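Researcher: Sequence recovery benchmark, item below. Answer with residues only.
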């Protein structure tokens, strides 16, 4: 149970990092 929670947390963190990177690239591309 705890391991599943930890793994899902890693997935969310990875997804947020990828999304943030895409937004950053988009922002730098516009300016």
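Model:
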């Amino acid at each position: 149970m705890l391991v599943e929670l930890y793994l899902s947390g890693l997935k969310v963190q990875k997804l947020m990092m990828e999304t943030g990177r895409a937004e950053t690239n988009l922002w730098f591309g516009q300016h």
